[in-house]
Every structure is written in C-alpha cells, then in structure tokens.
Amino acid sequence: xxxxxxxxxxxxxxxxxxxxxxxxxxxxxxxxxxxxxxxxxxxxxxxxxxxxxxxxxxxxxxxxxxxxxxxxxxxxxxxxxxxxxxxxxxxxxxxxxxxxxxxxxxxxxxxxxxxxxxxxxxxxxxxxxxxxxxxxxxxxxxxxxxxxxxxxxxxxxxxxxxxxxxxxxxxxxxxxxxxxxxxxxxxxxxxxxxxxxxxxxxxxxxxxxxxxxxxxxxxxxxxxxxxxxxxxxxxxxxxxxxxxxxxxxxxxxxxxxxxxxxxxxxxxxxxxxxxxxxxxxxxxxxxxxxxxxxxxxxxxxxxxxxxxxxxxxxxxxxxxxxxxxxxxxxxxxxxxxxxxxxxxxxxxxxxxxxxxxxxxxxxxxxxxxxxxxx
Length: 374
Ligand SMILES: Cc1ncc(COP(=O)(O)O)c(C=O)c1O
Fold this sequence. Notes:
Layout: H1 10-22, H2 29-41, E1 46-50, H3 53-63, E2 71-75, E3 77-78, H4 81-88, E4 92-96, H5 107-113, E5 118-124, H6 133-143, E6 146-151, E7 158-159, E8 162-163, E9 170-174, E10 187-191, H7 194-204, E11 208-211, E12 224-226, H8 237-268, E13 274-275, E14 288-292, H9 297-309, E15 319-320, H10 325-331, H11 339-347, E16 348-351, H12 359-373
Parallel strand pairs: 2-4, 2-5, 5-6, 6-9
Antiparallel strand pairs: 1-10, 3-15, 7-8, 9-10, 11-12, 13-14, 14-16
Helix pairs in contact: 1-8, 2-8, 3-4, 3-7, 8-12
C-alpha cells in the first residue's frame, strides 16, 4: 500500500488534450485559469503559478528583497527548502523550535529568535494544519517583519474559517504528488499586495518588465526590457491543464481526507503508545502524522519496518532541518538543539492516506500497528 496516490480522471485527460490541440503549451490561458480558480478558492487577490513550492519560496524571498545580512526565522521541523529560500538570496536561515503537539512553529520560540537583523519569518502550515496565525501576525507586526506562509501542505486549509496563504504577506503552495492536489511538479505564490505580485510575475519570467519606456507595444519589433535578474520559473499549460481539473476535485478530496483522518484517530484511540494528530476544523490532513508517545526512535523504526514487511509504506513526518549537513556545518548547529524538532523527526510515522483509500485498507494499517504493539 502506497503512502499516497493522486486522484485523476477523464477531466485531466480532456484538459491536457485541449491544451495539446491548441498548440499553446507554455504558460498561457490554462495557467491563467488555474490561477483564477486558485485565487478564488483561497480568497486572495493574486495567485501566480510556478514550477514548485521551492520556486515559490525563492520568488517570495526575492520579492521581499531579502539579502545578505538579513535573517529569516524558520521552524526547525519542516522540509529543507523552507529554509533554503532564505539562503538562496544570501540571507541567513535562523531556526526556531516547534510545538510538539501541532508540529508548527512555537510563537514564543519564534519571538525569542528575532534579532535586529530579522526581516522575515517563514511560517509552515505543516501536514495541512494551520499555524497559530493570530499570534504570529501580532509578533510580526510588533517587530516589523514580513510573513511568508509555507503552505506547501496546505491547499484548502483554513485558520479560524479563513483560507491560509493570504494572511501573511505571501503564501507558497506545492502541487507535488504527495500534496493535496497535484500537477506532477508545480507551485503557486499568493499575495494581496500588488507590489509583491508585480515582482513575482516579473522574476518568474526572466525578469521581463514589459516594453522599454516610450516603445510602442503594438509594433512587431518591440521587445520587452529586462530591469531585474529574473529566472524561468513558469508552469507549463500542460501542467496547468491538470491543475484546473484538480481544482474541481479539491472539495471532494478534502472531504475524503478528513473522513479518513478522523477514522484513523478513532481507530487508534486507546493505543497509549501512539499519539494521533491534533484536529481542528480547518485541518486538511495532507499527511496523517502520528507520533510515538515516548521518545524511542528505535521502537518507531521497528514499527515502520513491521509495516513495511506487510507491504505498508510509511515515512517519518519530515526533517529536523538543523541536523542536516548544510545547516549543521554552516552555522555550527548541534544535533540536540531544538529538542521538539528532534523528537518530532525521531518519533513520527506518517501513515498512508489518499483519496480512494478503502476502509479495509485503513483497517489493515491499524491492525498491523496493533499487532506490533501487542
Ligand atoms: C513544508 C514544505 N515546504 C516546501 C516544500 C517543497 O515543495 P516542492 O516539492 O513543490 O518544491 C515541501 C515539499 O515537501 C514541504 O513539505
């Protein structure tokens, strides 16, 4: 049993065919349609498709003009590119510990990590559960720093009934196949700020800033000028075609994920050795991440091997990023720093969850866990 499986149907095929038949396959009308649907669903002014969430985070850091000498606070338990975004532009990723129950950044630790050099915080809505945005926005306001929401896992997630991705200055989403909806690879930057949206659009398109001042755009010989050092981070219309079809499935995918997640939590209740995820109404369960109730990495590994032997794929939640070579070496970070991030990396088990998963498959997973725990 796979840890996840995307859900596709004839709608994806039909839209990809429409794209190919049109002969327009790079960023074009289907990307615009995908962006329009995404912006509407997340109640945000601008949604700009890009090649991945990592590219979206990079674009966000560039749009905020973060640079050498700046510090960016990042949770210590996350995917490594939440931190890379700062490093790509020469800024320094400074880690902050997480809340072990929610796996999201701890606002107290965040505020303690802020220095006069801090320019931004990357807030991660890990596994589809919103971070405590009221506290985080209040801290950001108090210190005058920008907020980038890493919403890679959080398509459709809400915080107090409000879609995430537009609460901070910029939101960054992923359409990797392990995420809620997928375009193979892909990402989206969201913002309500026109200045940031203009910079993102320009930077993802080689830095093109439109016709030079005074040039007549209607003339066939008029070309764009390039005032910024940009990149090619455009999504293709072939991928956007899949994205448009996936947006139509979003609500049913989210409903199915929640149903399965709540069923897991009910079935695992009573197993003292396993801690189930903390639920809230806006949690979309991009991943269903359980934790061993005691700090026993060896036991966690044994359970994972036991499940693998029965053909059930699992993964640890994610990384304690400060223990990874690049950051540990560059900043002399010690493995025992950020103890909750370490405990989270060492004791989490992500169980299979995907639209189309049957109750029988789910029962099989729970039975396998019970048989190991006796
Ligand atoms: C929290 C987080 N941020 C960023 C990313 C990067 O996303 P992508 O693979 O689209 O670059 C991921 C992907 O796993 C993630 O989980």
